[in-house]
């Protein structure tokens, strides 16, 4: 992604019961005030800076277990 732009990272989950979804950044925090997660569990990062580069992890968890997927962002 180009610095100053927006990046979208999708996380598609299914399950019964519906899993709880969380996003986090490996070795850091999600950018304060510059991210959101919508109802489809898509993570959006706004006004991206070089500090936002890294690996982002989507974790889906229910009483039956958990699963995770990663996405790498380069700025």
Automatic annotation (TrEMBL):
Residues 1-75 form the Ig-like domain. The keyword Membrane applies. PROSITE patterns: IG_LIKE. SMART domains: IG, IGc2. One of its GO terms (cellular component) is axon. Keywords: Cell membrane, Disulfide bond, Glycoprotein, Immunoglobulin domain, Membrane, Repeat. It is found in: Cell membrane. Its main location: membrane. GO terms for biological process: axon guidance; dendrite self-avoidance; homophilic cell adhesion via plasma membrane adhesion molecules. GO terms for molecular function: cell-cell adhesion mediator activity. The keyword Repeat applies. This is ROBO1 protein. It comes from Asarcornis scutulata.
